[in-house]
Amino acid sequence: MIRRMLTSFATLAVFAAAVPFCHAQFGMDAPAKQKSYVTYTAEAQSIPAGQRAVLQLRFQLVPGFHVNSHTPKSDTLIPTALTLQPTAGVKPGDLVYPPGQPFSFSFDPKEKVDVYAGAFIVKLPVVATPGEHTMDATLKYQACDNASCYPPRTLPVKILFTAK
Amino acid sequence: MRRALLLIMMVSGISLVVWSGYHNIHERRLAAQEREAAHVTLIPDNSSSGSASGDAPEAPSPLLGKPAPPLSLVDLSGKQVSLSDFKGHPLVVNFWGTYCAPCKIEMPWLETFSKKYAADGFDVIGVTYDSEVGKDTISKNVRKLGVTYPILLSDPKAEKDYLADTEVLPMSFYVDRTGKVIQVTAGLGSEDQLEAMVKQTIAAGAQ
């Protein structure tokens, strides 16, 4: 009886250990088709449950490109903005965007725009119930390099965190 | 005693399976986001055009040396304007967008040259490649830039014929008076470079 139980347990343990390897073998083959100039780096974040806490969302630009800041100082430029989807158990506060940095194109140094380059962090205050949470969001941005611009894009973002 | 031991082992085993399943889902989510983070966009060197160093922002294009594709689009007043209306004129077809800061640096230069070389028959046609804004916003931008040359609204055919798979703005096609594309540029160059190309376009195909 005990031997049979031990055999069943061993079988289950082998299955449990094998699942991640199966994913690595098949899931990694799908190439990302979306062309993007900004990427989001997911970080496991942990916050106190039931209290106001701030999540940090890190975005990285492809080298050589910049995007308009959240306040680009011109109503014709498209601001970088994150839109959050409602998530059960999570009450978000107002997003806090970093200030931009001045940028001018080499052939017109007088004309300055306000941009994010390299990396930037958007802060998201939340109050969350205990447990694992996944918030869906979309970052809208419009990228340029030192001489050209590219049509506006959206980047899907999944914000993963644990409230304890 | 043996039963208690058995029970503990079973509970431990089931806990391990549950934890492993949860851990796997979490890892998959993180891996998916890491894959997205590791995704790199490759842009041809010429798209950034080396403008910082002052090189002419020439772009390889299948249209180079070929007749300019027919173009028939509406302008901001709703009037149909065709490339054939400019037959025999050297001209620049300039794709731009309201969100494009370098385009707005270049357009007043094009306006200046359209007037300066009007006696040579030189014309400029602006094509707005900007699906997110309406005519009012485009008109407001055009007025603010002081542009008086025709501004047309792009359509999928014009984008396919001229831009193909590229999406770089500004993008300009220099068409000589015989209707042949003699130069294509992507990105902002200097005002002097632009004027040199305008002169080249006027001189090309001249009788």
Task: Name its key features.
heterodimer, A: 164 residues, alpha+beta, 4-stranded antiparallel β-sheet, 4-stranded mixed β-sheet, 12 strands, 43% strand, B: 207 residues, alpha/beta, 43% helix, 15% strand
Strand-helix topology:
The complex is a heterodimer of chains A (164) and B (207).
Chain A: H1 2-27, E1 38-41, E2 45-47, E3 52-61, E4 66-68, E5 81-84, E6 90-92, E7 101-104, E8 112-117, E9 119-128, E10 131-141, E11 143-144, E12 153-163
Parallel strand pairs in A: 2-12
Antiparallel strand pairs in A: 1-3, 3-9, 4-8, 4-11, 5-10, 6-9, 7-8, 10-12
Chain B: H1 2-38, H2 45-48, E1 72-74, E2 80-82, E3 91-96, H3 101-116, E4 123-128, H4 135-145, E5 151-153, H5 156-163, E6 171-175, E7 181-186, H6 191-203
Parallel strand pairs in B: 3-4, 4-5
Antiparallel strand pairs in B: 1-2, 3-6, 6-7
Helix pairs in contact in B: 3-6
In short:
Chain A has 164 residues and is an alpha+beta fold. Chain A has one helix at residues 2-27, and strands at residues 38-41, 45-47, 52-61, 66-68, 81-84, 90-92, 101-104, 112-117, 119-128, 131-141, 143-144, 153-163.
